[in-house]
Design goal:
The chain is of the alpha+beta class. It contains eight helices and seven strands, in the order E-E-H-E-E-E-E-E-H-H-H-H-H-H-H. Strand 6 and strand 7 form a beta hairpin. The chain is elongated and about 60 Å long.
Length: 253
């Protein structure tokens, strides 16, 4: 078994006290970083160093640290979630970097994701898009039908599950030159549009969610496909096409 390795790195981290103040990149040096540690554990180590130096620690979002919640979203060396593919920031390990590397760490950059502090951004715009139509009406009076009793084409079920894998991290927005949220919205529309349970609100859902997306200030799709490449869950561009079809059908009704 390979022995544990430690590296020394330099960091350029975005520091910003609040949305109304200007931020800047601040230089830090961190020694004896285990290559077995995750990127967030490295930031924990940096914060411990800052606290010991009686300096203010860096604010960053995190929760599950298992690649499920999407809270750990960071822009690392010019890429959403860092240099690896198909992982969130918390799943990125320091073995991806070399001794002496300089690492740039920034928050998501989007008008619709204003900075709260340092590396933390406000992604409540995603919540409002979901609230606008990301739900189904279910009779909970005691007469509900077991979901497994509703026959669904396997191909549709698989596509719905793939779309539902979206964790709403916002990497698609951060990567897109226009700050578009169409991959996120397309995934949320698709996971219901493909299933019979989602047919009741199908028309209102896509109209309301797209309207809310526009009101939040997200840009239009660039058609470059960068969102799909950087998405940690591999959400397909097919979902944007499906959302466009659903939107067209709803607009003609």
């Amino acid at each position: 078994m390979a022995s544990k390795k430690n590296i020394n790195i330099k960091l350029k981290v975005w520091r910003q006290k609040k949305a109304s103040e200007k931020g800047q990149m601040v230089d830090y040096s961190l020694n004896e970083v285990s290559t077995d540690s995750s990127f967030l554990e490295m930031l924990d180590q940096l914060n411990e160093q800052l606290v010991n130096e009686r300096k203010e620690p860096i604010a960053f979002d995190h929760d599950c640290r298992e690649g499920i919640c999407g809270m750990c979203s960071l822009y690392i060396n010019g890429r959403a979630h860092g240099p690896d593919t198909g992982v969130t920031t918390c799943q990125l390990h320091m073995r991806s970097f070399k001794d002496g590397d300089t690492i740039y760490v920034e928050p998501w950059r989007s008008k619709a994701f204003p900075v709260i502090k340092d590396l933390v951004v406000d992604r409540s715009s995603f919540d409002r898009i979901q609230q606008a139509g990301g739900f189904i009406s279910v009779n909970t009076s005691g007469n509900t039908i077991d979901a497994n009793a509703t026959p669904i084409n396997k191909e549709d079920a698989d596509k719905a599950f793939e779309a539902a894998a979206c964790i709403g991290c916002g990497a698609c927005v951060a990567t897109c030159k226009n700050g578009s949220a169409m991959l996120f919205v397309g995934a949320k529309v698709s996971q219901y549009a493909l299933l019979p349970q989602g047919k009741v609100e199908a028309t209102n859902r896509v109209l309301n969610m797209v309207r809310q997306m526009d009101e939040e200030g997200f840009g239009n799709c660039t058609n470059t496909g960068a969102c799909e490449i950087e998405c940690p869950k591999g959400i397909s561009l097919e979902n944007i096409a499906r959302m466009n079809r659903e939107y067209l059908k709803a607009s003609l009704k």
